[in-house]
Amino acid sequence: MDIINKKINAYIEAHTDIEPEILALLNRETHLKVLLPRMLSGNFQGRTLSMLSKMIQPKRILELGTYTGYSAICLAEGLEPDGKLTTIDINEELEPFVRSFFDKAGVTDKIEYLIGNGTEIIPTLTDEFDLVFIDADKKNNGTYYDLIFDKVKPGGFILVDNVLWSGKVIDENPDKDTKVILAFNEKVQQDSRVENVLLPIRDGVLLIRKK
User: Fold this and answer.
1) Which residues of 128-147 are buried (b: 16+ CB within 10 A; e: fewer)?
2) 205 near 45, Cβ under 8 Å?
3) Domains of the chain (ranges plus CATH)?
4) Rg (Cα) of the chain, in Å, rounded?
5) pLDDT tens profile 10-46
6) What strand order describes the sheet that includes 60-64?
7) How many CA atoms within 13 Å lie on the side-chain side of 15?
8) pTM over 0.90
9) Residue 18 has what DSSP assignment?
């Protein structure tokens, strides 16, 4: 995901708060024990998610795609005192690992961790959300967006990760996976119900505000 010049990335990291100790441990353990560690948000994106959450001060957060729990812990930092984050992931094999880090981070009582297919679970959710983070299987980005839209409060925010797709979105002959990303980005761009800004953070984060 080296879209931005490596020296610029290093400068950005050097002028961004260091991740809390528990997240540094989670980062290391993910790289040592879990497949595809590049899926982890990491320090810069994690501190960005934390900052955005603190700015929004959400009472209810929904995350699609838990992975090892790094981004959930970051987002939970901005929750109101009585707030709750619901995170959904289909990989049940990671559940013990994830729950152990939620416990170590002291956020177990703030997080509802659901295992299963997001397209099946989302329709069963009855809460309204102030903030949604979509970071699951990219082919379903459009489906997730449609399923959660009416569950987002007016003025609420949706964040979607990996919208630059390692820079492939500007390829002259995009492959099949890239075309899915392009179609979703255009879907949001043409949606008159929202305001949106594409942030060149790591692999691209689309920041969407529901009008």
Assistant:
1) ebbbbbbbbebebbeebbeb
2) yes
3) 6-210 (3.40.50.150)
4) 16
5) 999 999 999 999 999 999 999 999 988 888 999 999 9
6) 111-115, 84-89, 60-64, 129-134, 152-161, 205-210, 194-199
7) 5
8) yes
9) P
